[in-house]
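Archive transcription. Copying these from loose printouts into the bound notebook so they stop getting lost. Printout 1 of 2:
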Amino acid sequence: MNYLDMAIQLENDGEMFYLEQADKNSGREIERVFKLLANEERKHRELLENFSKKLDYTIPEAESELDYENIFKNENDFNVETETETKQIDVYRLALQKEEESIKLYQKMKQEASEEEEKVLLDYLIKQEENHYRIFNNIVELLRKAEEWVESAEFGKRENY
């Protein structure tokens, strides 16, 4: 399997992963984020498929459908029950890992690219995946800080002496 096929498969896997997570988080703010990410991964896959088949494609002008700043406008949308936090934070960490894998693959492909057109496409995809990475990194940090706060002795139950 060549790098281009790997990239197409990675984008397809990302889309399926995000759709599955959207279903599991139905009715919560994060569902919208997962659906937007799934849509972006689908578009990335389509770009790569068109490039692979030497068909016309257009790199979108906008950086991303995801308005990075507005995703975190209400941090309470990402709060979870303490008992389920570990499971949920693990999902976000897995998403981080998937985005990091995509970034590394596209960077390697760019290093080996000989055509300027290919480098432009890969630059675009790298920026997109870096944005996705930042989103999940912030979610993980929000949950990690909440977990640390709950577990902190300063805020724990005190016996009266």
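Printout 2 of 2:
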Amino acid sequence: MAAPTDCPCGSTDVRGRALPLAQCCGPLLAGEPAPSAERLMRSRYSAFVLARLDYLLASWRASARPAQFELEPGVKWLGLQVREHVLTGADTAEVEFVARYRVGGRAVRQQARSRFVREDGRWFYVDDVG
């Protein structure tokens, strides 16, 4: 599968044009720290689209990271909508989102509120609330 030109996370510039992966989530996937929990959430979505299990695990808070994690085979990611990004403390935040995908011919809409923490200047995914 060829790498996408547009960033899978759906971010756009001020004119509403899709941002290129190289200018959006690409640097984060290459190891640059995310400047916010929302940007980390968007880069994690892009990692799901691009099957970057390494990035998903590395961006997961070590104390909350599962011992085993696999990507579901056959998933076609359709889009991400970030509904809310809230700082809940100096180094904590929550991001509410809707991710859409198709698997086995069935459309799925995943809505969640994820918690994030900043440790040593880097944001990490912790878990989903409720």
